[in-house]
Amino acid sequence: MHATSPDVAAFILAGGKSSRMGMDKAFVPLGGRTLLARMLDLARSITPQVSIVGDRQKFSPFAPVVEDIFRDCGPLAGIHASLRSSSTDLNLILAVDVPFVSLALLEFLISKARGDASAQVTVARSIDGWQPLCAIYGRAFADAAEQALKQGRYRIDSLFEEPRTQVIGEEELKIAGFSPRIFRNLNTPEDLTAGD
User: Fold this and answer.
1) Which of 21, 131, 144, 154 could disulfide-link 124, Cβ–Cβ 3.0 to 4.6 Å?
2) Which helix (H) or strand (E) holds 30?
């Protein structure tokens, strides 16, 4: 059994519309298991405190569910709801559709977050841009998220201000042994067959 981190809570964002996939991404099979099952297993190898952010009726058979406070406002609303429900300061946010992220990567992000107590966010930034849906957030980030949501601003990366954000660049990822393609997400049926 892998050692878990009681000071970390994990939240799997599964509330998206999945319109390009043609079915709910959470239940799309990949390698014989649904994306949701894969992400739940991964998150539970980090911490026993794992919740799904999405529709309670749909997801309550699988794990505790957190529902958005700000409805239909995208992933930022999911991050906000997660942090408002959390009792830990380190919170792993994972999208349900990033099945190639590894336990080693998550442990690396958590270790970086533990090493910088002033950071409200520990997030990777690769050539493809910010990776806010595989990142570590402090509970205090909920305040900035709430303010943005009330103003109708839903872009997560617009809240990544220098003093509060620990950025892990592509070079640092590579040195640590991680390819930027590890963050590849699945949006369409074609993505499922593109290989990793």
Assistant:
1) 131
2) strand 29-30
Report if residue 3 sits inside a domain.
no
Handedness of CA 71, 74, 76, 79 (dihedral sign): positive
pLDDT tens digits for range 91-103: 999 999 999 999 9
Alpha helices in the chain (DSSP H): 35-44, 56-59, 75-85, 103-114, 141-150, 170-175, 189-192
- pLDDT tens profile 123-140: 999 888 999 999 999 999
Residue 130 lies in a domain: yes
Rounded to whole angstroms, how far apart are CA atoms 52 and 115? Answer: 27
Distance, CA of 195 to CA of 128 (rounded, Å):
18
Q: What CA–CA distance (Å, rounded) separates 64 from 34? A: 18
Give the DSSP letter of residue 182. G
Q: How many domains, the chain? A: 1
Largest CA distance in the chain: 45
Residue 171, domain extent: 8-192
> What rounded mean pLDDT belongs to the chain?
90
Type of residue found at 127: I
CATH number at residue 102: 3.90.550.10
In this structure, is residue 1 part of a structural domain?
no
Q: Are 36 and 50 spatial neighbours (Cβ–Cβ below 8 Å)?
A: no
**3 state SS of 103:** helix
